[in-house]
Each structure stands twice: as C-alpha cells, then as structure tokens.
Amino acid sequence: MEGWDTTTKSTLTQIPLLTTKAGPRDGALWTQRLKEEYKALIAYTGMNKSNDNDWFRISAANPEGTRWTGKCWYVHNLLKYEFDLQFDIPVTYPATAPEIELPELDGKTHKMYRGGKICLTVHFKPLWAKNCPRFGIAHALCLGLAPWLAAEVPILVDSGMIKHKDDAATSAQ
Amino acid sequence: MEEELKGMVEDLQVLKGSLATLEKRVQNVTSLAKTTPTRRSKVKDMSSEVIDSNPYSRLMALQRMGIVENYEQIRDFSVAIVGVGGVGSVAAEMLTRCGIGRLLLYDYDTVELANMNRLFFRPEQVGMTKTDAAVHTLSEINPDVVLESYTMNITTVKGFETFTESLQNKKFSTSKHGTGVDLVLSCVDNYEARMAVNQACNELGQTWMESGVSEDAVSGHIQLLVPGETACFACAPPLVVASGVDERTLKREGVCAASLPTTMGVVAGLLVQNTLKYLLGFGQVSPYLGYNSLKDFFPTMEMKPNPQCSNSACLNRQKEYILAKPARDASAKAKMEAEASSQTEGPLHLDNEWNISVVDDSEIEGSTSNKSDALPEGLVRELPISDNYENKMIPVETNAVTDDLDYLRKQLDALNAD
C-alpha cells in the first residue's frame, strides 16, 4: 500500500472487509457474498456523502447481482465530468477482479482495453490478488476506478478528447 | 543500311513475341482476380498416394517414416481453441492444415489493423469478428475440418455457461469418455480468461494446454495441464515460476504490450507440436516448455499440483487422482510384466560375482515419502507447518438472520436516490 495517499488509505480502512469467498456460480454462498458486497457499498457510499466526496452511483442490473451499472463523475477545474459505469462479475470472482468499464471513453485513451475496460493491471490487480477474498466491489471502485479517473480525466480534458457537456452543447448550437 | 533494317525487323519480332506473353499473363491475372477462389471438394479418406492433388500425402508419410502409427485418427479429434489472436489463429491454421477433425474457436474481438504485425489475418478482414474471419479462411484452406465458432467473452457468467456446454457437446464423436473435446488450447492474452479456462477444465476434468507470450514479445511458454495430476493454473501461474513476476501484473495487448510475429509463430508451433504428440501418441509430451528468444533457451520442467490450491475443483480432481492410484499402479505393473514376459526368459547374467540384486522401487518410494517432512539433523523449519490450512477460511460471522438481501438492496437504492 505504499505510494497511496493518506485519504485513500484512511477511507479504505473504513470500508468493511468481506469474508465469504464465493463467485456467482456458488448458489447460497454467493447470496451471502452479495450481502457483504451491499454492506460494503452502503458503508462506502454513506462515507463519501458525509465527507462531501460523493463520486459514483452503482446498483445491480440483474437479480443475480452479476451485472452492475451506474454513473461515476470527476470534478476537474470546477467542472463535473460524468460517465456511464458498468461491469460484470467474472465467473472466477473473487479470484479475479471485476473489469470496470467506462464505455463512453472507449477508444479515447490508450489506458484502456477494448470495450472501455479501464486498465487496472499495474495499480490495482496485485492489491486485489493479495487481499482476496476480503476486497469487494466497493474496494475495486475506491482503489481501481477512483485513481484511474484522477489520473486520466485531466489528461483527457486538457488534450480535448472529452468536452464538458455544457461546452459540447454550446458548440453544437 | 540493309544490315540496320534487318536488325530492326529482328528487334520488332522479339518485341512482338514478348508482348504476346505479357498479354497472356495479364489475361491470367485478371481471370484469377475475377474468379472466386477454387474450393477443393471434401476428401472422404486420407490417402497416402503421392500425387500433387492429394492434400494429405505428406502427412500420411509420417506413418511410412515410422513417426505416427495411425495418422488418419486425427480426423476423430476435437480441439477447442480459446482466443483467436496472434497464437490462437496460427495454431488453428496449423491444426486445420493437419486435417484435425473438429475445431471450436472462441473470441469476442474483431480484426484490427494493429493486428497486422502478426500472422494469419489479412487487411481486408479488418472489422470482421476474429472468429468469422478465421472460419472463412480456414474453411477455404481445408473444407474437411468441422469448424464451430463462438463470438463471446468466456469470463462472464453467461459466456462461461455457453463455453462449458459447448465443451460437453458430444455430437461430433460419441466415443469420448468425459467431454466432447479431446483437448482445450488456451491462447488468450489475459489472466481473467486463463482463470476461466482453468475453472472450466478443472470442473470438467478436461486436459488442456496453456500458452503465452511475454509482454516484451521475446519469450513465451506452453504448459500441459491435466486436472488433479499436474499443477493447475491457480496452483502455480507459469510466469511466477519462470521469472518471479506476478502474473496478475501482466499487461494486455490493448495497453501497449509489444508483439512479434516470430515469437507468436514459435509459440504456436510449440503448442501445436505438443498437441499432435499428445493426440497421435508419438514422442514425449512436454509438461512445460519455455522459450527465451534472447538466449535461445528452452527450459522444461514438471509441476505437481498444489495441495493448498485456492481452486476447490482442482482439490477435488487431486483427491480423485490420489484415490485412483492403486488402479493406476496395477495397470502400470501389468504393462511392465507384459513387457517383461515378452522379453527373453532366463537370467541376464550367468554369474553374479558381487551378489547384485534388483530391489523394487515402489517400497523405497513409500518409505521415503513418509519421512519427507523430516529434516536432516541441524536444520529447522522457519515457518510452522500448516496442517489446518483448509479450515482457515471458514467465515467468522454467521449472523445471517439480521441481514436480508432485499433490505440491503433497498438501502443502497435509497443512498443512490439522493
């Protein structure tokens, strides 16, 4: 965990850790895991709101809880940039981390795999592997997606690859 | 003057002649471009007849050379190739040209111009799915091969279901004992997909081979994985063993990994060679073969399964393998005895001046394996022996009464609402 900022570290310690090692094909155990995922997400979202650091919405897109969709946003130069957020729970979860996708940014940055999957390889995958099965979706957002947005959105904005929605609207008129 | 005229007439004649041949070539090339590529008809039996029109004459010659006993049985085999990229597509072409019975291809990607530094795919196929493009090319090369393609991601729950179902489909051949395929070849470029293949093969007890090329494009490996008998992919990821690098930190193709047609071609060649040896039963099948192109070093090794593997299906296969040991030993012994009896009877040496006698290996092996935990005098273990590893992961809290999934979902929705 060296190299991470103190805010992220202290946030991380407050997200409840998970205990059940189960994937989507494990029946009742998966339900148990899903409950733990919800608890961690509720705690993390609540914590973000109370710290005035709300930055994502996520909810299960199917009853089995294997597909998740939502939104995430990042504020750069006092402007809010919002993106659709989605991912599938892989069949080998939690041995492998979810592959977080921002489909709108597909092809706009090389820090991404095909289909808008953000690159988690270096900064997040080793952490996930070491903390399996204690990390869940909330941890993936906190340690995977948040640093990616912080690193990539400013570059994307400054290079003109993405425009703020107000700018895009005025230029279209 | 006359001499000059004669020379010019001769030149004109030569030019006329070359013009005629040039016109003929133009005609040939245009007609070749116009006509759709001629497809050969299917071949019913593989013939060893040496004529130009026989696509299998050189392969059947393997029998005459004493390498393969029965080459034609290759038509009974099904091979699944997961990932039709730099290695998978070339492996598919090799197996197609060898006349494999049936190929199952899995990939969710499309062909891109960035793939043109590798073999197999052509620029005019850009935009097609890799599976479609591969089936198109492969069916032209050898119409005898039954091709099935699946354009999907095997790491998703739904994709994985389709994947395992397709492996169990026995409609091509009913003689298979376990699944409907003889071998699965993993030619994917990421950890998630490898873990998915590993999971499927561990659950089905399906033998498979893994392949990989390093992100710097100068080394690669192939590995044979027999669930329960050899290490599974979760027991010991190959790169950790080979270089001490954590497999999970591997970059993928999309994010600036290098690739070379040479390394990919070599690895595909090693993979299919091992496949042919495994299927047709010749030579030695390598359990692991590395390729370091910078030093042209080819390390080989064997890996036993990890009794503390995190994959439960792997542990189940390991138990089954241990349970089947007596039967395996008995058949091995019977085979040995059959071989021994077929040899000439009578003592090998008439005199035994030094009273040398042959002792049975298996008993010594049994006694040493019991002592394998004992250390030589003077040595102590740094870490305690983990006898109760398997019980360690039992969840501590079991207060499932208070938490209800619907209640939790609503709670998150409420947080999401404002």
UniProtKB/TrEMBL annotation, chain A:
Which InterPro entries does this entry report, sorted A to Z? Answer: UBQ-conjugating_enzyme/RWD, Ufc1
The active site is formed by C119 (glycyl thioester intermediate)
One of this protein's Pfam families, by short name?
UFC1
The name under which this protein is listed is: Ubiquitin-fold modifier-conjugating enzyme 1
Functional description taken from the UniProt entry: E2-like enzyme which forms an intermediate with UFM1 via a thioester linkage.
**Entry's Gene Ontology molecular function annotations:** UFM1 conjugating enzyme activity
Q: Which organism is it from?
A: Aristolochia fimbriata (White veined hardy Dutchman's pipe vine)
An example of a Gene Ontology BP annotation on this entry? protein K69-linked ufmylation
* GO CC terms, sorted: cytoplasm
- Family assignment from sequence similarity: Belongs to the ubiquitin-conjugating enzyme family. UFC1 subfamily.
Q: Print the organism lineage.
A: Eukaryota, Viridiplantae, Streptophyta, Embryophyta, Tracheophyta
Top-level taxon of origin: Eukaryota
**Keywords, A to Z?**
Ubl conjugation pathway
**Keyword Cell inner membrane annotated:** no
TrEMBL record, chain B:
Question: Is the keyword Endoplasmic reticulum in the record?
Answer: no
What Gene Ontology molecular-function terms does this entry list? ATP binding; metal ion binding; UFM1 activating enzyme activity
Q: Which UniProt keywords apply?
A: ATP-binding, Metal-binding, Nucleotide-binding, Ubl conjugation pathway, Zinc
GO-annotated cellular components: cytosol
Q: Which GO terms describe its biological process?
A: protein ufmylation
* Residue intervals passing through the bilayer: none
Q: InterPro entries attached here?
A: D-isomer_DH_CS1, ThiF/MoeB/HesA, ThiF_NAD_FAD-bd, Ubiquitin-activating_enz
Pfam assignment, any one? ThiF
THIF-type NAD/FAD binding fold domain location is 56-310
Is the Nucleotide-binding keyword given for this protein?
yes
Protein family (similarity comment) = Belongs to the ubiquitin-activating E1 family. UBA5 subfamily.
Return the protein name.
Answer: Ubiquitin-like modifier-activating enzyme 5
Lineage start = Eukaryota, Viridiplantae, Streptophyta, Embryophyta, Tracheophyta
